[in-house]
User: Which sequence fits this backbone?
């Protein structure tokens, strides 16, 4: 029932005391009433239960001093207390998240409404209606925690996605690991280190992010008792707290790790292996320097996953490196030295693709035919991997054999190659130019060639006039259209001192540019270099044009004597 202070002003003249009491007690919310000075003169039973205070304790007490508190349990100053301002100014007030002090010293979060009790415009007191919002706040906190967890999960997922992307964008181990370190710091850790195993007894520190003045040192011995050795040998992820980091381990690598932790101020660290399915290649160490933000089990799971992804990337890069070495060695053996022809100057270049298997189906060749005429060949088998290189070797050998077997026109050689290719090789399709440089040593000279779907030869005269020889264009090799194709020969006089450039499409095709643009660029570049030595011309072509390509490139250049009978 309603409790009140006997003789209180707020009860004078009420027509039905029992009705008022019943109304207050059945209101479903806590209610208390003060006089104009702020002393409590009425309290209903819900307020008594919510506040955990007996009526006798509350009646007559100053409501502000007894109940009103900040969320940090401090007494709300009179000057900022919204309830006191209701008494002062006579205007209602609301508080969605206010705090009352309970009898046991705990804080009760409440939502309240306060209104002045007025008579003829004079403030006689204050009535406060409040409800417990503990459950609502708990629900809000749970929802906020769930939202934070979701945001954290999304952030971790985003980090893992970005790490996977940067690790697969390059096959250069050092570059991939540097990118990894820059993603981890500072989003996940304050600093990161990557150590790679050189062989069973040595590791090398290859990445320190952020870098120090001496980020890399000589290879460090790997003692079996060190923490890093435990990671490398057993493939275990290790979580280190302040006590673990401070522990004295005087063996070589463990001491180096401890010195690194001390220098960087680490208070929490995770060391995880970089591993493939078959072996551990190194270790990733991440650390935090804030004592209030140590790594936890969730971080261990995340860092372990990052280490696994990084290990696979390092393993793939190393496998690629070994394949590249084998492929490049094979390519060097397949591209024979150019023949020595007294009156002709020749130069050639082969450059592997900057991505992929670093070797491919592009090739050049030059050799003397039985009639003493120099033959020039440039070709491109579909693909740029080891398979394409092997198929190129088959085709190259076939071209040499068929060209040497009979002294016939270039078109007949190409036609025989096309017919034999599908029968005795695995080459699916290819482009090729087969050319003869005809004429006596003193000239005049002419180029006789057949083109099977290959970019046209480029002829540059000594005065810098450059043009593509687009005659003799026929279908590429291996189309197998079911018809008997008759290939054509093309013939072009070659002035003394002129330069002939044969090339593969990687030289004139690049992402973001069309073939016409690439051809125009090559023509302008070679025309401007007509006065340079032939070796310098090849070097400049590679230096100026090649960086934009994504394919392997073969280049074969020939220069005639500056003067002669055909000059």
Assistant:
């Amino acid at each position: 029932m309603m409790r009140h202070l006997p003789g209180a002003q707020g009860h004078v003249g009420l027509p039905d005391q029992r009705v008022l009491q019943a109304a207050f007690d059945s209101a479903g919310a806590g209610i208390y009433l003060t006089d104009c000075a702020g002393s409590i003169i009425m309290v209903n039973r819900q307020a008594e239960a919510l506040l955990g205070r007996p009526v006798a304790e509350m009646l007559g007490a100053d409501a502000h001093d007894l109940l009103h508190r900040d969320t940090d349990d401090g007494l709300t100053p009179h000057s900022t207390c919204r309830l006191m301002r209701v008494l002062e100014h006579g205007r209602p007030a609301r508080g969605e998240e206010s705090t009352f002090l309970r009898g046991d010293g705990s804080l009760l979060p409440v939502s309240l409404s306060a209104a002045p009790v007025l008579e003829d415009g004079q403030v006689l007191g204050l009535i406060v209606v409040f409800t417990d919002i503990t459950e609502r706040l708990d629900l809000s906190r749970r929802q906020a925690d769930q939202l934070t967890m979701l945001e954290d999960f999304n952030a971790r997922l985003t980090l893992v996605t970005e790490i996977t992307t940067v690790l697969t964008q390059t096959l250069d181990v050092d570059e991939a690991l540097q990118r990894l370190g820059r993603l981890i710091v500072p989003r996940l850790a304050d600093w990161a280190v990557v150590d790679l195993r050189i062989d069973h007894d040595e590791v090398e520190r290859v990445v320190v992010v952020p870098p120090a003045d001496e980020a890399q040192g000589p290879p460090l011995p790997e003692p079996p008792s060190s923490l890093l050795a435990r990671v490398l040998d057993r493939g275990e992820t290790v979580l280190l707290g302040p006590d673990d980091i401070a522990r004295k381990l005087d063996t070589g690598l463990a001491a180096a790790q401890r010195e690194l932790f001390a220098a960087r101020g680490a208070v929490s660290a995770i060391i995880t292996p970089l591993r493939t399915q078959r072996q551990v290649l190194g270790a990733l160490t991440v650390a935090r320097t804030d004592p209030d933000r140590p790594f936890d089990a969730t971080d261990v799971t995340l860092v372990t996953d990052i280490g696994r992804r990084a290990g696979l990337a390092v393993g793939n890069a190393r496998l690629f490196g070994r394949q590249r070495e084998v492929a490049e060695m094979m390519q060097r053996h397949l591209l024979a030295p150019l023949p020595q022809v007294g009156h002709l100057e020749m130069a050639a270049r082969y450059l592997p693709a900057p991505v992929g298997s670093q070797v491919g189906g592009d090739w050049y060749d030059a050799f003397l035919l039985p009639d003493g005429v120099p033959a020039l060949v440039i070709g491109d088998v579909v693909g740029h991997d080891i398979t394409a290189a092997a198929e190129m070797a088959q085709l190259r050998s076939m071209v040499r054999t068929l060209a040497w077997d009979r002294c016939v026109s270039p078109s007949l050689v190409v036609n025989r190659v096309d017919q034999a290719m599908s029968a005795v090789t695995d080459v699916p399709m290819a482009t090729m130019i087969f050319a003869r440089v005809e004429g006596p040593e003193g000239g005049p000279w002419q180029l006789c060639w057949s083109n099977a779907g290959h970019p046209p030869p480029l002829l540059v005269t000594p005065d810098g006039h450059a043009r593509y020889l687009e005659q003799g264009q026929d279908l590429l090799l291996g189309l197998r259209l079911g018809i008997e194709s008759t290939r054509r020969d093309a013939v072009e006089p070659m002035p003394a001192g002129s330069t002939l450039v044969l090339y593969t499409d990687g030289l004139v095709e690049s992402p973001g540019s069309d073939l016409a643009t690439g051809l125009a660029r090559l023509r302008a570049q070679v025309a401007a270099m007509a006065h340079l030595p032939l070796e310098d011309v090849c070097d400049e072509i590679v230096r100026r044009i090649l960086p934009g390509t994504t394919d392997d490139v073969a280049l074969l250049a020939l220069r005639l004597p500056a003067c002669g009978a055909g000059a």
